[in-house]
Amino acid sequence: SARRAADTAYDRTLLASARAVADGLYAEDGRLRANIPYVALDTFAYDSAGRIYYQVLGHRGEQVSGYEDLPPAPPGTRRTDDYPALAHFYDAEYRGQGVRVVSLLQPVSEPQLNGMAEIRVAETQGARERMARELLVGTLWRMGLLSVSALLLVWLAVSLALRPLETLRRVVAERASDDLQPLPDAGLPREVLPLVEALNQFNERLRGLFERQSQFIADAAHELRTPLAALKARIAL
């Protein structure tokens, strides 16, 4: 779906941001420090698509850097198989806004420091919601365009298929009432040929019937003509 595509794209960016923070971790005087370049801090504080927050916690859970009150992952948060085992994604509420959070565990192995540091990066969800809407609108637009194109192709195919039938209709409509010659079947669709053949057979039977009627009338007229001629002859005498 459009929302899943947007989530996948932004989750990867969120994870890359957490890894950038993890790369800046180092130990000094037995304490964990975070060295994040100014450009990275500027990117985390504000970006064109929304707000981004980060937090670094030491191996004992102590605050190292960033925002102190970022919400932790809810109990029972399930890990997605799309990302490494040490990364967890979850939705939360922060400062009155819905945020998407990634929690990345970073192994720390230094003298007097041995355990897992945690990096949390949160992003407001307005950007991904906007992207999801844009993807949905784009998808609907493409589907609508494809549907219209398909309808036009169907209409064109039906029109081409029915053109021989229209020609046949005109031939039948322009015929004289006593024209029983076979209908032309050239160029007709295969499915229509049995119908045309049946009509031609019916016309053939009608033509035979009319011919027999004409012959009967001619014979009857001949039979009547002979007695009348004889009667006229007698009257003349």
Description:
- The structure is a single chain.
- The protein is α+β, with helices and mostly antiparallel strands.
- It folds into 2 domains: 2-133, Beta-Lactamase (2-Layer Sandwich); 177-236, no CATH class.
- It has 4 helices and 7 strands; from the N terminus they run αββαβββββαα.
- It is rod-shaped, with a radius of gyration of 45 Å.
Quick summary:
The protein has 237 residues and is α+β, with helices and mostly antiparallel strands. The chain has helices at 2-23, 38-45, 126-174, 193-236; strands spanning 25-28, 31-34, 52-57, 63-66, 87-94, 97-110, 113-124.
Strand content: 15-25%
The mean pLDDT is 77
Which architecture of the largest domain per CATH?
A: 2-Layer Sandwich
Range of helix content: 40-55%
- The low-confidence runs, each spanning 5 or more residues with pLDDT under 50, are none
The number of E-state strands comes to: 7
CATH names the topology of the largest domain as: Beta-Lactamase
Count up the domains: 2
Give the helix tally. Answer: 4
**Cα Rg:** 45 Å
Structural class: alpha+beta
Strand order of the largest sheet: 4-3-7-6-5
By CATH reckoning, the class of the largest domain would read: Alpha Beta
Shape: rod-shaped
- End-to-end separation: 111 Å
List the helices and strands in order.
HEEHEEEEEHH
